[in-house]
Amino acid sequence: QVQLVESGGGLVQAGGSLRLSCAASGRTFSTIDIGWFRQAPGKECEFVAAIRRNGITYYRGSVKGRFTISRDNAKNTAYLQMNSLKAEDTAVYYCAAKFGQTTVDAPTRYDYWGQGTQVTVSS
Q: Facing residues of 36 across strands?
């Protein structure tokens, strides 16, 4: 069982930065893949970024070069550094965890989810 708690969301002007954190419970953090997803009002949940247990990272095209995903296994925490934020980045951001080698960009592959944190970017 893995419990996830996100933090770090808020209101920021376009061009600004935020860092989201995802704190995980349990002693299995180093063995899980972590994904960040987001959902804007009226839209489907979409993949943002992921980091495998071996450190390999993945990003959706629209955030490459602006967002950076990382993890600190000693702190059981993953991060999403978001720079050059745009109004279209506004959404509730969720972190999720899964085991195994399955694809990282499909929400259905993840077994554990946090409660979400709101990110609002004003233009």
A: 49, 95
Say if residues 36 and 95 touch (Cβ distance below 8 Å).
yes
Tens digit of each residue's pLDDT (9 = 90 or more) over 5-27: 999 999 999 999 999 999 999 77
Mean pLDDT, rounded, for 70-91: 97
Give the contacts of 104 (CB within 8 A, at least 6 positions apart).
33, 35, 47, 50, 52, 58
Of all residues in the chain, the percent with pLDDT exceeding 90 is 93
